Amino acid sequence: MQRLEGRVALVTGALRGIGLSAVERLLAEGASVVLTDLADPAAAEVSDVLGRLGPAAHYLRVNVAQEADWQAAAASVRAEHGRLDVLVANAGTDCTSRVEEIALADWHRVMAVNVDGLFLGVKHCAPLMEETGKTTRGGSSVIAISSIMGIVGIADASAYNTSKGAVRLFCKAVAVEFAQKRMPIRVNSVHPGFVRTHLLEQGMAGWVKKGMGESVEALMAGLGASTPMGRIADPSEIAPAVAFLASDDASYITGAELVVDGGWTAQ
């Protein structure tokens, strides 16, 4: 059974990693999916991905830190699809450095993408999601990809920690706000552990450059060894959590944090 048949989802940061895996799973569950990312719609990367995903996948260029982009995206989804059931706020960036060495511009960049991007997406998609949510048992669903680093602190990652902690509490606050106003929009966060993505590889490369490891693969192996299950995750292992929270199976779940970390935060 396709739990999301007839529904429409929008996923940010959708051309790779967790975002792309979430898109693939939502499509498999029957949804039409609007992928958003920074690439030009005419780019080969976009056409390659859309060609592989099929006709239920669509693309919009959205810089999540720009309010005008969100306004345009919400208007486009309304005009083209007439509904929005699921918003997956996945786009993110990081900054790995000692706190005294973080440039203010880098701090602002991380907050703009990871925090402002979520806020703006919810702000501008909520009106259409409220309308849509009235037509389904479970209502509409906002799913923000946070991190275990939104729950626990890790050295040399204070900017990323701060942004992902903000994502966690923003979701809780807005979940309560919508529920108390009887707006049919659930809001939850997903907290992956260490996942083999381009973003993690970039972060590890930064650590290698600063002499904090011999190689990216050695650091990846160390992260796996520090995880009770003995390995880091594949993006496809995060996508089922997204699909669950998007579906009516999660109809009574809002303001929750779903941790998918191989036991890392249980230690």
Write a short abstract of this structure.
The protein is α/β, with parallel strands linked by helices. The chain folds into two domains: 8-193 and 233-260, Rossmann fold (3-Layer(aba) Sandwich), CATH 3.40.50; 196-232, no CATH class. It has helices spanning 17-28, 44-53, 67-81, 104-133, 158-180, 198-209, 216-225, 239-246, and strands at 8-12, 32-37, 57-61, 86-89, 140-145, 185-192, 257-260.
Topology record:
Elements lengths: L7 E5 L4 H12 L3 E6 L6 H10 L3 E5 L5 H15 L4 E4 L14 H30 L6 E6 L12 H23 L4 E8 L5 H12 L6 H10 L13 H8 L10 E4 L7
Helix pairs in contact: 1-8, 3-4, 4-5
Structural write-up:
By secondary structure, the chain is α/β, with parallel strands linked by helices. The chain has two domains: 8-193 and 233-260, Rossmann fold (3-Layer(aba) Sandwich); 196-232, no CATH class. It is 45% helix and 14% strand. The chain contains eight helices and seven strands, in the order E-H-E-H-E-H-E-H-E-H-E-H-H-H-E. It has a seven-stranded parallel beta sheet with strand order 3-2-1-4-5-6-7, sandwiched between helices. Helix 1 packs across helix 8 (239-246). It is globular, with a radius of gyration of 18 Å. It starts with 7 loop residues before the first strand and ends in a 7-residue tail after the last strand.
Which tags fit this structure?
single chain; 267 residues; alpha/beta; Rossmann fold; 2 domains; seven-stranded parallel β-sheet; 8 helices; 14% strand; globular; SDR_fam; NAD(P)-bd_dom_sf; Dehydrogenase; Sc_DH/Rdtase_CS; oxidoreductase
